[in-house]
Design brief:
63% strand; Porin; 9 strands; mainly beta; single chain; 1 helix; 218 residues
Length: 218
Amino acid sequence: MKHTFFLTFLISLLLIVSLTVSSAKAQDYYGNSYAYKPVSFGLTFSPNLSWLNFGNDANVRKESEFSYGYGLLADFGFAENYYFATGFLINNLKSAVERGADRISTMYKLQYVEIPIGLKLKSTQRYFRSYYGQFGFTGGLKINGEYAENDGAYQDLGSEAKNVRLALNIGGGVEWQLDHNLRFVTGLSYNNGFTKILDRDLMGPKNSYLAVNLALFF
């Protein structure tokens, strides 16, 4: 159900943006593309759906949860369709598990400062939009970690939460040209964590998430 809602939200958002941009450009007198811009900075907000990975442990039931990230992005072009993409983000990841003979329910809330590093490939702009694909890595430093059992009060995870999270990131989407110096980005990305983020009860799970990427570049 949560995954269905997430995908429905994304499709609805893309349709609304497409209709809005098409309507606005019907009154535009500058043509259907703008000049290549080698450097862009932007603001982003990214709702995400996060879950924990326990490998082959069949005694753990995972539940994905919604949260969000926000921050700054930067694109540095080294050719017309090729960019080095990075940024500075605050990312909140939330997930739940049931484990043990008593089926203890535990909710985890982790917050990271993240720096994404990747290669961004863009299509040539046509009719005020271009398509992009992106692949790279994400490095995160923990700034907060909490857990709550059986819907109780949240407690600090302390050293039980790993300080560093590393992940592979892949995604794509559409960049909508709103003006000469303003672009609205809509996209979807999958972030696959490959380092353990918890040491509680020797579980050692990894974390992954699916995110809707929304951004304004100036």
